[in-house]
């Protein structure tokens, strides 16, 4: 147990001063799994350490009127004694209480809190005395995980990869590797069209108007533009609003990238009506997916020789992308089941007092309601079950899977950008060393730990492999997201936020 929080309690001076000459810890039950713990800290328990710390300080500081290292201890006590003594007492209390709870095999709930009869005094660095510290603790009884058995079964899934996905990728590869040629044929989907545009005024070329040659990708044109241009050939002419050629292109973008205007010319008024002439039509002729071309797509190490091999590899990649979602579905169902099978008694009175005390230590903290306490207890029980299972199955996070997880998350953040060399390795190494990335590292550690726990649980239950199509699988993931994502904000608030693509729920989010 980490006892740093005890320092907060002591620094708030929840200490009573006595003249007892012996050191001991006593525990008095004041309710079910709720006890009062009294620690008596005698002068002999801390005096030697206190004097030792003062002597160390003596060799480091220099007070006015004394040479360095020659300052009398009496002066040091007056100047620094209170803070030195407080640090010594805090550490002694932490170590003593920590050892006591370990020896007594007590699994504490939260941290000890000052008891109702704790007194406030000042620490006196001159006249040392014994201290009696009174705390309340809540603890769990001895318990073990129940309900884990091969007699219980869970569904896991083999997700059918939509054929359209594979076809789209195959066609994309063929086009990417294909040869581009100018054709004297009608414009069709996928073509790049070179156009000469002349600004019009009342149906005629505008005097001093804008002229420009530019390329447009047919598939990026607006629906109206596609209807008008589709089927035309080189040398054909048509009139259209240049600012409406593409739905996602603003007037300013059209001036810069289509009309090639620069500087102050971008701000000048331009009529949208342009007479346009088709100059050239460039078409991609799909490449054959032979061994040489497939090496360019997948790399020589994959040794893919034909389109059938490419389709198999694409299906393999797609199925790998389903693994996290499949794992989340199993893990969530398994944890919910185990949670139902295990009733861990939690002392509600102490739990509420502990949450109330924690809130009081924060600026503006508000004591929890009974409903909030009940929800916190439910979350606490689930965390305890997961923690116990991680101990039972000896789950630990090694550096290799941690780095792999971090690299994958960084790659997703880079939105698939291809970075050369050892970019991701060096980035992960930097994040592991830089404290500002602690939250990111902790999240990755949690993901890796939950994945390992999930794999261990799969060995304890019977798994039924169910064949499902992608739409069915997506529906299950959407349902899982709905169960564990917070409700949507009010409309006014939601409209102010940028829309984000929905992601598959992670184990971290489920058990945050």
Describe the structure.
The chain is an alpha+beta fold and 512 residues long. Among the domains are: 4-140, Alpha-Beta Plaits (2-Layer Sandwich), CATH 3.30.70.1050; 179-285, Roll (Chitinase A, domain 3), CATH 3.10.50. 46% of the residues lie in helices and 17% in strands. The chain has helices at residues 4-11, 43-58, 73-103, 163-177, 223-229, 251-257, 291-298, 307-341, 348-360, 370-392, 399-413, 423-433, 438-458, 470-484, 491-494, 507-510, and strands spanning 16-18, 24-31, 34-41, 107-108, 113-114, 130-140, 153-159, 179-182, 192-201, 204-205, 211-217, 237-241, 273-285, 462-468. The strands form three sheets. Strands 1, 2, 3, 4, 5 and 6 form a six-stranded antiparallel beta sheet that branches. Strands 8, 9, 10, 11, 12 and 13 form a six-stranded antiparallel beta sheet that branches. Strands 7-14 form a two-stranded parallel sheet. Strand 2 and strand 3 (34-41) form a beta hairpin. Helix 8 (307-341) crosses helix 13.
